[in-house]
Structure formats: structure tokens, C-alpha cells
Write a structure and sequence with these properties.
- By secondary structure, the chain is mainly alpha-helical.
- The chain folds into 2 domains: about 120 residues, Arc Repressor Mutant, subunit A (Orthogonal Bundle), CATH 1.10.10; about 45 residues, no CATH class.
- It contains 6 helices and 7 strands.
- Helix 4 crosses helix 5.
- The two termini are about 20 Å apart.
- The C terminus is likely disordered.
Length: about 170
């Protein structure tokens, strides 16, 4: 299971990939916010008095520093966030791990859908024994589910080569 730090790393790297691999801090963080990649709590939106910045934005800037120190991002230019070749591979690894889970700490369904599209670009076979989507809001019969749910189901089935079983989760 991905740690919260790894989930945050994934959304930073996915956002950078959305923006062509290189963008400003504001562009990367605005993209994350606009696409709803992270489940933000009320406290995440609080402005830090020391930085005049929302807490979650400052937090992800620190995640960037961790990614730079490990070689996944290039930190050679001020206010320029850029992924490295190693970072692209790392993003695909994190995306694969995120998609193999059934629960996440702060990743949203938008982030998981984006992660699915990232791993579909890997070009190698991903093996998963069986994936079961558990969501109390989903109907037992997937044929009556909203189209977005069916799309995600089809992507999982295509990527992992398995039939997706859906059922209503116990309350």
C-alpha cells in the first residue's frame, strides 16, 4: 500500500506529466487542484501566515524537494519543476501500485483514472490476480452504473486482463 508521501509524490509527477514534464510551481499545483487529484481537507486550504500560501501547496513543494534529492525531478532551475527520465519510470511504478490498491489515503478517483492512463502507456504487461471494486455508492449490477464507472471498469479489465467483480460494500 502506498504511503501518504508516495501518494503525494504520484500526484506531483502525474501533474508534471500532464504539463509536458516541465512547468512552474503554480502551474503544477493549479493543475492538481483543477483536476482534483488530491482529497483536500478543510485544514489543507488554510493560509500559512509565514508563506501566504495554502498548506497543501506548501506541503507538495516539500514533496518536490524529496523527489529532487532522490533524482526523480530536476531542481537546477528556480521555480521550474521538471521530471527526469528516472522520475517518469518512478511515476509509472507508483501509478501501478496505486491502481492495484482498493483504498487510498488522499488520492481521488480522478487521480486513479489518471494513474490508469499513465500505466497504459508503459507498454508492458501488468499482472494482477483479481481486482474487486468496493464502493457502497456503486450498484450491485454494474450495467446500471454511471458511464464513468463503466469506463474505469473497462480500463481495469483491459490493463490487468481480469474480469472486475463489483459488489456493494458492507456498511
Amino acid at each position: 500500500m502506498l504511503s501518504l508521501e508516495e501518494e503525494k509524490r504520484l500526484i506531483v509527477l502525474l501533474s508534471l506529466r500532464d504539463l509536458g514534464g516541465k512547468a512552474t510551481k503554480a502551474q503544477v499545483l493549479d493543475n492538481i487542484d483543477e483536476k482534483g487529484y488530491i482529497d483536500l481537507l478543510g485544514s489543507d486550504r488554510e493560509i500559512m501566515s509565514s508563506r501566504n500560501e495554502e498548506l497543501w501547496r506548501n506541503d507538495l513543494a516539500f514533496i518536490r524537494h524529496h523527489l529532487i534529492s532522490e533524482g526523480y525531478m530536476d531542481g537546477s532551475q528556480r521555480n521550474q519543476w521538471a521530471t527526469t527520465t528516472t522520475g517518469t519510470s518512478y511515476a509509472q511504478t507508483l501509478a501501478t501500485l496505486a491502481c492495484a490498491q482498493s483504498q487510498w489515503k488522499r488520492l481521488t478517483s480522478n487521480a486513479i483514472a489518471r494513474a490508469l492512463s499513465e500505466i497504459s502507456n508503459i507498454g508492458s504487461t501488468v499482472i494482477a490476480p483479481q481486482v474487486e471494486i468496493l464502493d457502497a455508492s456503486m450498484p450491485t449490477d454494474i450495467s446500471n452504473a454511471p458511464e464513468s464507472t463503466n469506463s474505469i471498469k473497462r480500463m481495469f479489465e483491459k490493463l490487468f486482463g481480469v474480469k472486475i467483480a463489483t459488489r456493494v460494500a458492507a456498511p
